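User: Run a structure prediction on this.
Assistant: Running it now.
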Amino acid sequence: MKIALKEAIIAFQKNEVPIGAAITYEDVIIAKAHNLTETFNNITAHAEILAINLASNYLKNKYMKKCTLYVTIEPCIMCAGALFWSQIGRVVCGALNNPKRGFLYYGIKLHPKTKFLSGIMKNKCRDLIKKFFSFKREFKKKIK
């Protein structure tokens, strides 16, 4: 989770929503990414999607049954869908997402064999995203 949090901080510094992800295979980090939706002008450039792509390329396989995704915030429904199809073995999430943003709110299920755990470093993960949106609100006030 520490690597995912470092990725989220990089996103913050790039004025991206600070979400970071890392994927491990046999306890080795094979992919890490952060949100790049603003940089790429692409709404699908979420940290989880980018990390899945990197890990798939590394493994030369679209399925990640023996992998773990560490992500700072609960995945959205788009990312949960990608995680479902990747058949990832485990998802470890920092903080749960805001209502109506995370996949759990909508009752979306991950793959039946995927284990899900949340609350790892949740305060640091949650505080970073709160700080980001607080800065955004303050900036908007100043430019009015």
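The radius of gyration is 15 Å.
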